[in-house]
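Figure 3 (text version): structure tokens given as input.
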């Protein structure tokens, strides 16, 4: 039988849901500034489109590598420390990006930011797993996963408002400020699991399949995944791999394209 939830469980689950949801929304405020201000940076610093593209490629490469590193760090440190470190690092390098004057330094900072940003998804999903039963996760995570859409939209709108009034450097400072506030609320309201606040763990009921498996020697790693699950894993990861090409091409280059080809202002281009 699944663990009965107490009122305190429910209160903490709401806190954790909100803290982790806001965390991933907040990550976008340090992910978006370079893309939002890309055209203005190129004009101000006299950097070519190729240079800007190479700098952004550094982020994408780092973000891909960071997915593997974040998984290892999450296992070693736990979701809380992993995400807090990632948000703090992303905040600091985003501030530094706002005062950078050379392409190589900018590329290095963007690379570090990519590593830091990679802690967000796995760390926060790991937290949610500790607070919700398996039978709840489809419904709960469906609502929770709105964070990446909300984060992409709201950060773009904020960057647009900033660029309408201030210089491109301000997008980095505002983005870092937002993530710093999100970091603080995460520190206050996120916990890895119920036991961290003196509550019983959220256990799932033991099924007949679980009992049958318990008699077998424990298997870990890749060998523990069934052939059917491996096929599903490859199908989902393959779809996501190609979907990322479209998604990142649109949101990271659309403002630049609209500014350079259709004469939109930096602010207006980031509203689309």
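Below: residues designed for each position.
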């Amino acid at each position: 039988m699944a663990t009965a939830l107490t009122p305190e469980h429910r209160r903490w689950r709401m806190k954790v849901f909100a803290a982790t949801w806001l965390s991933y929304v907040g990550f976008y405020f340090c992910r978006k500034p370079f893309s939002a201000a890309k055209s203005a940076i190129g004009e101000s610093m006299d950097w070519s489109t190729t240079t800007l593209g190479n700098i952004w490629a550094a982020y994408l490469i780092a973000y891909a590598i960071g997915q593997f590193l974040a998984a290892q760090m999450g296992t070693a440190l736990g979701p809380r420390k992993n995400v807090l470190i990632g948000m703090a690092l992303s905040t600091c390098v985003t501030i530094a990006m706002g005062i950078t004057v050379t392409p190589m330094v900018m590329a290095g900072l963007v690379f570090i930011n990519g590593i830091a940003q990679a802690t967000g998804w796995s760390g926060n999903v790991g937290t949610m797993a500790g607070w919700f039963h398996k039978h709840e996760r489809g419904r709960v995570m469906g609502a929770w996963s709105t964070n990446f859409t909300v984060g992409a939209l709201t950060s773009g709108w904020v960057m647009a408002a900033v660029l309408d009034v201030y210089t491109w450097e301000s997008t980095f400072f505002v983005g870092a400020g937002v993530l710093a506030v999100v970091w603080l609320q995460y520190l206050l309201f996120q916990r890895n699991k119920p036991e961290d606040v003196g509550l019983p763990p959220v256990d799932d009921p033991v099924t007949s399949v679980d009992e049958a498996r318990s008699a077998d020697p424990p298997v870990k790693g890749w060998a523990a995944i069934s052939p059917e699950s491996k096929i599903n894993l490859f199908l989902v990861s393959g779809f996501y791999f190609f979907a990322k090409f479209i998604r990142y091409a649109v949101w990271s280059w659309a403002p630049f394209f609209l500014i350079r080809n259709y004469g939109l202002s930096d602010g207006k281009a980031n509203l689309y």
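The chain has a mean pLDDT of 91.
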